Amino acid sequence: MRYPQGGGLTAERQQFREELRLKAAERFAQGEASSAIAKDLRVSVRSVQRWRQMWDEGGPRALRSQGPASLPRLSKKQFAQLEAELATGPVAHGWEDQRWTLARVKTVIGRRFHLTYTVQGVRKLLVRNGWSCQVPARRAMERDDDAVAGWVKEVWPCAEGSRRPVEPGSSSRTKPVSP
Length: 179
Fold this sequence. Notes:
- By secondary structure, the chain is an all-alpha fold.
- It has helices at residues 11-29, 34-41, 45-58, 76-87, 102-113, 119-128, 145-160.
- Helix 1 (11-29) runs antiparallel to helix 2 (34-41), helix 1 crosses helix 3 and helix 5 crosses helix 6.
């Protein structure tokens, strides 16, 4: 995601960028060089060149903000309903364990609101609304620490294998053993 802290630019930031473009447009009309405009406005020369091309094609109106790139498909009210559904837990929706995955949230959205989202679209929707990935706060009750410790001592060394050869090796591939 391009803007990870909220899924896009805030309204204030959009306004700020639009003002920069309009300041550049005033200077385009005066015939100033792109490099001078970029230096004064503290933006890249390539951005100013792009703005100049838009300005040449459509005038200052072409530099106005187009608004958000996409509107959310779930309204605030629908997202609140989704949060309520998620709060009931996965078992209430027919899954056997207590894990919410993106695929499961996608399924709930499809069942409840008759909308199709991609898994990445679900992730972006949740992040945009303040949700984050979570890990369990504590270990599973079924975990047997003694069995884990025994496995690490006995089984893992056999599975890992030795990293060093038992006998001295040779640096020659064609003559593995030199007299």
